[in-house]
Write a structure and sequence with these properties.
45% of the residues lie in helices and 14% in strands. The chain is an alpha/beta fold. It has one domain: 3-Layer(aba) Sandwich (Rossmann fold). It has a seven-stranded parallel beta sheet, with helices on both faces. Strand 1, helix 2 (18-29) and strand 2 (33-38) form a beta-alpha-beta unit. Helix 2 packs across helix 8 (224-234) and helix 4 (98-126) packs parallel to helix 5 (148-168). The chain is globular. The two termini are 28 Å apart.
């Protein structure tokens, strides 16, 4: 697998911490030249990923990122659209304003559409490329108290990804979705802390609420590296006949087949 990835160029959005960092490190260790984006520079960049400062919620960021990558490397082989966040308050429909809805959709859906649109022409020209859109189990298992607008945006991302895979498959570009469940990241821990504060409960009680809602048969959160392992396989030559597919990696939480 590592031999098939050596010297390829990859973009990992939101690649400075959590799942994104784990993916960036995994690809780098396989010989990939990795570009990461985030609003602020990473404090830990031991693998020496090339960093581009970007706020993906801003429409102009995609063209800026694409231009810099193509000027520096002359190509792009892998796009991992990982940047995303649940930006709305809990409590259901009455607590979510138009601004909240817009923020979630800009961050979790439109940012991906714009990055792909900016870089896909280069992939199509070279007749090869792989796109992995990081979605969420919440897109198929929404929790109305916690993830209504976020889940909606991620569900749209799933549909868009399937349509895009159908469009560009004959042009040498593969598109797949990875849908993690609950993952032990800083954002997830902050999410649990916010639930604790808003419900006047302990961190342990808030964690139990989340785990009970999601109902993970394996009884634990995923480690970011476990998501990275799946992504690394999907972008490798070993997965060259896989496209248009959504992979749940959620410890068995999704209650349907």
């Amino acid at each position: 697998m590592q031999n098939s990835l050596k010297d390829q160029v990859a973009l990992v959005t939101g690649g400075t911490k959590g799942i994104g960092k784990a993916i960036a490190d995994k690809l780098s260790n396989a010989g990939v030249k990795v570009v990461v984006t985030a609003r602020t520079a990473p404090t830990d960049n031991a693998n020496g990923h090339y960093f581009i400062a970007a706020d993906h919620a801003k429409p102009e960021s995609a063209e800026t990122i694409a231009t810099e990558i193509l000027e520096k490397y002359g190509r792009i082989d892998i796009i991992v659209n990982n940047a995303g966040a649940n930006l709305s308050p809990g409590g259901g429909f009455s607590t979510i304003s138009d601004e909240h809805w817009n923020a979630d959709w800009q961050m979790n859906f439109m940012s991906v559409v714009r990055i792909n649109k900016a870089l896909l022409p280069s992939m199509i020209k070279q007749e090869s490329g792989i796109i992995i859109n990081i979605s969420s189990g919440a897109a198929r298992q929404p929790i109305w108290e916690m993830t209504m607008s976020y889940s909606s945006a991620k569900a749209a991302l799933n549909v868009y990804s399937k349509a895009l895979a159908s469009e560009v498959g004959s042009k040498g570009v593969r598109v797949n979705v990875v849908s993690p469940g609950v993952v032990k990241t800083t954002l997830m821990l902050e999410f649990i802390e916010n639930i604790s504060k808003s419900s006047n409960s302990t961190i342990e009680e808030a964690f139990k609420v989340v785990m009970d809602k999601v109902d993970v048969p394996m009884g634990r959160m995923a480690e970011p590296e476990e998501i990275a392992n799946l992504v690394a396989f999907l972008v490798s030559a070993e997965a060259k006949y896989i496209t248009g597919t959504n992979y749940a990696i959620d410890g068995g939480a999704l209650p349907t087949v």
